[in-house]
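Quick one: structure for this chain?
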Amino acid sequence: MADIAARYRAELDAMTGLHDAVVAMMSAGSWTIRRRGLNSAVIQTIIGLMTKACKTFRAVQILCERGLIQDANALTRVLMETYVAIAFILQSKSGERVMIYNAHSIAQDIKMLNEWKNTPGLKRKVTKGILKQASEGLATWTNRLPPGTDFSRHWSGKRNLQEAVKALRGDAMYATLYRFTSSMAHASDVGAHFEIDNATDELIWQIEGGARGFEAPSYAARELLWNAAARLNQRFGLSFSDLLAPHKIRKPYVGRDHVVSK
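Got it. Here's what it folds into:
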């Protein structure tokens, strides 16, 4: 929508600037990583998550510019979870945490395949070879984990995402951004898609979208992507601080007075 692009030109340009800076960091050629405890599994997993974060961020920007704010909010929640995964793995015990993360991912695939086996029309798609390959892939991670490690419930090894966020001291982020977007992600936000005409009491369906609420996903997404990139830069011992610095939001938006990078 042209009016949104004009009204929020500065914010959209800021999103483009941050996106381009992070992509420039990610595509800057060979990195010299100067930190211990970062094996190839950690590095590859974090780069994969950052790649996902860049694409999700870009999708949030496109949706904001089109006036599809509820959808942008839902994707900002996805971006938050990606940021949490990056920050949690890099926080401490990165080698062990990345094994739990990947073990959980494959275990979820196996769970899906087993469900397909019991679903008419899908069970023929699950061959013994596919299950064997998935089981062997899972074993490559679990065989190196300490006995009794629980990777079944969540990729963090904790009970759920909230516990992982708590380990990052992100309680306010969870209580605001994650809870706020819950109804949008789970189709219980129907009230956000219509207004009532005061004169006629008729419902006016907001099918075209609009600018209302633009700031929430646009600012939150910028804060999340910047913090993810800055955390990677710091933990990997890289030298992209000057590239990222101009794009930092000076007043944290997520949780209002909460800094998600803590």
